[in-house]
Amino acid sequence: MKFTLYPFAAFLTVMLISPVSNAKDELNGIPLKICVEESEFPPFNYFSRIDGRKSHNSDGYDIQLLYRLFTPPRWQLHIIALPWPRCMLEVELGKIDAAMSASANPERRRKFLLSRSYYHLTPGVVFLKQRFPKGLKFNSLTELTRIGTVCGIRGFNYHHFGWNNSLPLSLSKDLPLIPELLQRGRCDFFLARLEVFSGTLKLMKRNPQDFGLATQAVPHTRPEPFYMLVSRQSPHKMALLEEFNSGVTLLEKSGELQLLLQAFTDH
């Protein structure tokens, strides 16, 4: 998978907007705050690079989709990057209206309103090829816990992977640390959505061979749907859900949704 750092030039230039916005950028419309993962979730949301250095501008499929759907003068859109656990908490409390690129589990369905799904990812495992040169043979993640330490990202949901929440899961704070944790022996296996892991390495301008890594899909799983999570406390929750769901459906029917995704990925 490959994604560009300056896609869809015809779209509005998207900048990460802090909670305190410049007054001249304020528009008379419904104020809407949406958070994304601060440590990046490429190609869906990430900080664009200028001469190889991370900028303060947020880009990606999520960002461009939001600016396509929630336009002025009806909406006054603010996109905020936060650590994922804080993003979830502030949406739950109603301080932020919604979060992008979220998977589902029973707890999240109780706490939030879910949009329709707008893309799918592959649940997978990352490991050192040198240690397992013939790949992994397993039917469930429980089997991997008998071989070594299984790691994941703090605050991420692994329900769709078939992970048993009663089992301990070593936690890391962000995806770029995966290679180092595997090489240092802190983890033997790392749970990752394969498309996002590939996107993370490309953002780092590295490939799996640089680290001696291999990836494998979790058996007996289907592609995992991703959603916008909407706060049950948001005063705009129903308008927000209706606008997002109808807008995504129209873009999907016209083929524009796939074109937007392809602007950030190369299959």
Question: How would you describe what is shown here?
Answer:
There is one protein chain. With 267 residues, the protein is an alpha/beta fold. Helices cover 28% and strands 26% of the residues. It is built from 9 helices and 13 strands. Strands 1, 4, 5, 6, 7 and 13 form a 6-stranded mixed β-sheet that branches. Strands 10-9-11-8-12 form a 5-stranded mixed β-sheet. Strands 2-3 form a two-stranded antiparallel sheet. A hairpin with a 2-residue loop joins strand 2 and strand 3. The longest helix has 18 residues. It is globular, with a radius of gyration of 19 Å. It starts with 29 loop residues before the first strand and ends in a 5-residue tail after the last helix. About 9% of the residues have low confidence. This is Transporter substrate-binding domain-containing protein. Keywords: Signal. Belongs to the bacterial solute-binding protein 3 family.
Nutshell version of this structure?
The chain is of the alpha/beta class and 267 residues long. Helix content is 28%, strand content 26%.
Set out the fold topology:
Layout: E1 30-37, E2 46-50, E3 53-59, H1 61-69, E4 75-82, H2 84-93, E5 98-102, H3 106-111, E6 112-114, E7 119-121, E8 123-128, H4 141-145, E9 150-153, E10 170-172, H5 178-183, E11 189-193, H6 194-203, H7 208-211, E12 213-217, E13 224-231, H8 237-254, H9 256-262
Parallel strand pairs: 1-4, 1-5, 9-10, 9-11
Antiparallel strand pairs: 2-3, 5-13, 6-13, 7-13, 8-11, 8-12
